[in-house]
Amino acid sequence: MASTPPAPRPPLPVGFGTLLRTARINAGMSARALGRAVGRSHPWVTDLEAGMRPPSVSMADRVSRALRLDPWADAVMRAVAVDDAEMRPGRTV
Predict the structure, then answer these.
(1) CA distance 20 to 26
(2) What values do phi and psi take at 77, rounded to 5?
């Protein structure tokens, strides 16, 4: 039986990337430094800030801690996060 491709995710909220980029800059971190801090590449950070990908729940936690997000920004980060299992390559629905 063939697997069904995953349903497309809704776009990230307008302003999410700007919020994240502003928090990163305010924390004095480059995209490369944030990537290292959370165990990802700087292109991953750039894609996240561009709204091309949502963070997983575990990555949202790592990014929030690395940037020391305020409670509102942390809530936004967690609101857009998707289940870690959805982010695994080769997942099936």
Answers:
(1) 10
(2) -60, -45
Please tell me the distance from the alpha carbon of residue 7 to that of residue 25, in angstroms, as a whole number: 33
pTM exceeds 0.70: yes
Mean pLDDT for the chain overall: 85
CB-based contact 17:3 (threshold 8 Å): no
